[in-house]
User: Fold these one by one.
Assistant:
Number 1:
Amino acid sequence: MYIEEITQSVEWSGDVKQAYRTLQVTLTNTLDGVKPIAEFQLGKDLRLFSDGIELFRGFIFRRQTDQSGSMTLVAYDENVYLTKNEDTKKFMKMAASQIIRKLCVEFGIAIGTIAETPYVIPKLILRDMTLWDMMTTALTVTRKHGGGRYFIYAADGKLHLAKRTDRKAAYIIESATNLLEASYSQSIEDMRNQVRIVGGDEEKKPIIAVASDQASIEGYGLMQHFETGDSDATQAEITKLAADRLAELNVIDDEAVVTAEGYDDTYAGVSVYVHDEMTQIVGSYYVSSDVHTWAAGMHKMVLTLSATDDLPELEYTPPAETTKKKTKTKKTEEDAE
């Protein structure tokens, strides 16, 4: 059933660090103010199309209506079920892509295209976690071992895993044409300009690597990140890890929020070029979150932009495994008989 004739407004939103995208629809579900036009059941399908192209497919999780017949529907895409299921799992010698596929099969989540991740994780023990946190942890471990950056998304009612590449929006946002509002901030609060990593046997034969940026230290002061590397890592691997982590952490956080005319291809996870002289938002930025609204015949979007390509991360600390003590039983003469 198509409901655009009774729809008052639509809000479509997402965040790169959230498992799922959200669709909120406000509509007038009555013609006479006495009875509703249609029944919208919880758990049923709700889709959003723009110019014949499907932008969203999900399930109604919340509905609200008042005496006048005004109704609000809130739906989430398929990946919401990654946050609604928890478990404890132990994975041995599996790649993140294999872990994700296995969890989807076990919990009945439809699988789309799953990119193969190259790094095989020796052991991963995940306790009392949602499926989303399990998958995010596996992908974080993969990235930290040089296996590349991957992200999970939903499309056509299925879960997909893809390698992170620079997806660019087709349109430029600029103050002279389609930019409506803008604000900009910078911060060094999360910056780290020196990285120290200790691997190997920390007690007997530690492997240590330090990477630093002297110019950054002189400009902003020393801010060190410390990390423990794998016990079986080589000096070359620890050194590379320190250099990679420094490149990641030695950055000034830029955040810009812009309101502009809406474009369907501009959403969390893509990059967009923005040009505004007043706020000095000039250049290509990653969209970390977006809110698209359609109302009164207009399509607007509010974008939170970042200079860094942020992805959800969860650090993994191997839990201590409990071992059962073997108990010896003494054989008595009665037992022998």
Note: Residues 331-337 have pLDDT under 50 and may be disordered.
Number 2:
Amino acid sequence: SVKYNQQEICALKGSTVFMNGTFTHPEGLTVTEKFWTVDPSEKPDLSKSPDYSGRVEYLSTKQKQSSLKLSDVMKKDEEKFFFRIITNVEKERWVGQPGVQLRVTELHVEAPEEVTEGQTADLTCKTTCSLTDPTFIWYKNGRPLTTKTIKNNQLHLQTVSSEDVGSYSCAVRGSQHLRSTAHSLRVRYPPKNVSVSINPSGEIVEGSSVTLTCSSDGNPPVKIYTWFKGTISVGEGKTYSIPNIRSEDSGEYTCQSRNDHGERRSTAVYLNVLCMLMVVSNVLLSDFLTLTVLKVLCSLSTPGLKKMEPHLVDLTTARLRMNMELRDQIWCQSI
């Protein structure tokens, strides 16, 4: 008779499995051959079968014991395996019943395709049969997860955020090379990291063209952009262009990004528009004074603002840059 340690075994595809059996026989008989088979009627020796070539090894530590080591388990190996004993007496041959049923499984991640930020999500490492005392390991983007809650075969994500977006897979400790296929988790969230860039990035001179571009991160992607100068809405779209910019265009600009899950406004950027004042000889500086000298000392002031320090201006450059807010009062004297 034959006794098996287990009558059903669940194994991961690609793993190595061991089946153990012990046997007894009447005294006076000599065991001439013992092997494992999957066909109790034809009774072929697995070690001689082409389907198991190089994958079968018989192990025996005791005289009346036999173990089958089956490597690189395949889905087609889902069979009942029997231990066969042949003795020196023709009629004394046995196939041990009921055999060992081998079931083969792969790991599969079961999880929602998409969740909304702030919700919880559970990812489950599924099998088609019950592995023996498995310890599950989870990976995100190929790296082991150590900071998340893992219970049995589940990965629990508490208060999901956009940082949880990624590719998740699972494995069983001891067979980490046999991971599940990856599952991509998407997270819906309102716009984040909203910012405004200015082109050109240097000084902005009156008469030039300026383009503001709004950038943001959101899922679904942001499609609605609103531009504000101060608190006043001035435009729509990912970019806002100001051709032939004027002094009155100076001010703070913000971009508001919106998707199905909310909206967020950027921090303000300030456009400081500089004018180009052409200065030539014989320029009229006031109603009372006309200068023909090549140099003048000029300062700028305006009501309510601190008077600026005087600036020595070389009229041979024929150009003076100043802030447009201060252009109305220019005070000059000869030197």
Note: The CA atoms of residues 92 and 254 lie 93 Å apart.
Number 3:
Amino acid sequence: MHPTKPTGKMAYNKLVASIELAMELQASSTGLTIKQMMERTDRSRKTVERMLAGLNGLGLEPQLSLVEGDHHLTKRWHLDGIPLSFLTLTPAERSALERHVRMMPKGTTRVGLTKLLAERKPLSKHLAIDQEILIERAAHIGKVGPRNKVDEELMSILEIALTGFEEIRLLYQAATRPTATWRTARPLGLVFSRFGYLVASSGNRPPVTYRLDLIREALPTGTYFRPKSNWNFKNWVSESFGVFHGDTSLAVTLRFNSRVAKRADSIEFHPSQRTTKRKDGSLVIQLTCQGHRELIHELCHPDWLGNVVIEAPETLKSEYLHYVEIKKEAVR
């Protein structure tokens, strides 16, 4: 039985994978080990070794890179000389990087990425306008921890709908439902935290959130809508402590004891917060927000547990105690 010859598409995919590996090798200042290449390409050792040999066949010759401190048997590979045509950013890539930079905190990483973008050709005016719309309709709620991968094809459909104010059909399976159902939605924005969420409305109903990993399919409808002039996405996001809305806004007062007061004072828990330092070294933070469940999750963080007191309101105290009772189920 003869082995199957690679089709044109298979050969093209292998070529793309090899060029992507070449870019990884050139982007790394110290070079990459075989193990690191396996992790970045999600391929076996034999496949990575074949890809390295293939780069030699393309005239791109990876060189051994020595790094002080490595074990004497460790081999790293580095590459120089990839043609500039392979390194040109596509409009979609530049657009994604610009959005990422605008949402990054100030610091060395943001400055460095900004310099790299400044060296490149800017987006066309038409694409730049779409870019601004997406930036205004996306919010990142920074949390360190597990994150879900987002399907690129789905994101492309959602971004086009967001910039064009187009209704979409969603096949959505809620976490508590056994099957997925179709619904029509008007995309209003994207929120990224531990999960990614689409914020959308239906007719005159208040906006709701759809977890991106639970959207099984999204289809453009060709029907367009006019967003409400008195509704602002960024303002809506800032009303909640986290992603979720729908509960009532509460005026919350938290007191952090002197052991963690300095750390708490360096953090912005919510845009509405006001802080007061007390003579005993404690810190009082007052804020008004929805999203009580996520606020309770934050107060249960190891940094604050045993070091923070909910002074008001009583309803939040009750919710917290109820949450503690539910957590006890994990140790029964």
Note: The two ends are 59 Å apart (CA to CA).
